[in-house]
Every structure is written in C-alpha cells, then in structure tokens.
Amino acid sequence: MAEFIKVATKAEIQNGKMKAFTIKGKQITLANTDGEYLAFDDTCSHAQCSLAGGYLDGYTLTCYCHGGQFDIKTGEVLGPPPPSPIGIYKVKVENEDILVEI
Q1: pTM (2 d.p.)
Q2: Measured between alpha carbons, how far is residue 52 from residues 1, 14, 16, 30 in Å?
Q3: Which of 24, 29, 82, 101 is most buried by a 10 A CB count?
Q4: What integer best gives the mean pLDDT of the chain?
Q5: What gap in Å lies between CA 81 and CA 86, rounded to an integer?
Q6: How far apart are CA 10 and CA 31, in angstroms?
Q7: CA-CA distance, 27 to 42, in Å (whole number)?
Q8: Which pLDDT value is given to residue 1?
C-alpha cells in the first residue's frame, strides 16, 4: 500500500532546482517550480540518464544526455528521443517537510 514518506525539506530544493533521492529502492527526482514541488522518476526512458542532472524550465525538463524533454507535471514526452513517459508521484507539503507518495 502506498504511503507518504518525508523526502526533504523546502529549504533543500530551491526554486527552479531538482535533486535526486532513493526512496524505497526507487530513484526519484524532486523539483521546485515556483514553490510547487513535483516528484517523478529520475531515470530517462531513453538512455537511462539521471534526470536530476537535466535542465528545468517551468514544467519542462530537458535531459542532459540527448535533449529529450518531459512535462514533469504529467510525465509526458514533449520531445524526442524518449520512447515513453516517466512516472510521476503525488507530493504534499506539511509545514517545511516535503512528502512523496510511494
């Protein structure tokens, strides 16, 4: 059964930045877009690169390996070469803590 797990504090993820975490054996990236925290699979569906090393512009994430793009709100592929979307996870903020549902 899925549960919310504390992953970070708001101070750890600055606006426009991302950071990778291992939660219950899964590599997940946490991003901050104008105070909205989003969580998604850290591994690109194309070349298995860490998405936390990519470039974030609003909700558009560009993978640093081959330039594939994803919408981090929906997980959808916005630009090739990724063949499939990435998984996204529910996030909630309690005071200063960021929790992700796994």
Answers
A1: 0.95
A2: 27, 13, 12, 8
A3: 29
A4: 97
A5: 13
A6: 10
A7: 5
A8: 80
Q: Please, what's the b/e burial string for 13-31 (b: 16 or more CB within 10 A of its CB; e: otherwise)?
A: beeeebbebebeeeebbbb
Contact indicator for 19, 91 with CB cutoff of 8 Å: no
Stated as kind and residue range, the H or E segment containing 98 is strand 97-101
Q: Structural domains in the chain?
A: 4-101 (2.102.10.10)
pLDDT digits over 41-85, tens only?
Answer: 999 999 989 999 999 999 999 999 999 999 999 999 999 999 999
User: Side chain identity at 95, as an amino acid letter?
Assistant: N
Question: HSE-up of 76 (CA within 13 Å, CB side)?
Answer: 5
